[in-house]
Amino acid sequence: MLLNQIKQLIAKEMLLEWRQKYAFNGSILYVVSTVFVCYLSFKNIIDPPVWNALFWIIMLFVSVNAIAKSFIQENSARQLTQS
Questions:
Q1: Shortest CA distance to 63 belongs to which of 35, 34, 32, 27?
Q2: Considering the domain boundaries, does residue 10 fall inside one?
Q3: What separation in angstroms does the CA of 45 have from each of 39, 40, 42, 61?
Q4: Which of 24, 25, 46, 55 is at a distance of 20 to 30 A from 13, taking alpha carbons?
């Protein structure tokens, strides 16, 4: 029962994201541009483990930003649970 609800919730979110392709493409653009700017800024002074950490920090901020935007765009008619 719980697994079925989780699958339905994920399917709903994927459908909503597929309808709003600009949000996904915007996140990809943000990651690529931020990594490129960091590369240009630090290419001579950072070793590979630091690059790895920097990349995952950027991914964390992109994820938080994307999740925040999805909650802002969610209206009360589409909510699955009621308070």
A1: 27
A2: no
A3: 10, 11, 5, 23
A4: 55
> Whole-angstrom Cα distance, residue 71 to residue 20?
13
1, part of any domain: no
> Which amino acid is it at 26?
G
Helix and strand element counts for the chain (H, E)? 3, 0
Q: What is the pLDDT of residues 66-77, one digit of tens each?
A: 777 766 666 655
CA proximity to 12, closest of 82, 71, 83, 78: 78
Give the predicted TM-score (pTM) of the model: 0.52
Task: Return the number of other C-beta atoms located less than 10 Å from residue 31's C-beta.
Answer: 16
Separation between Cα atoms, residue 9 and residue 80, nearest integer Å: 9
Inside any domain, residue 8:
no
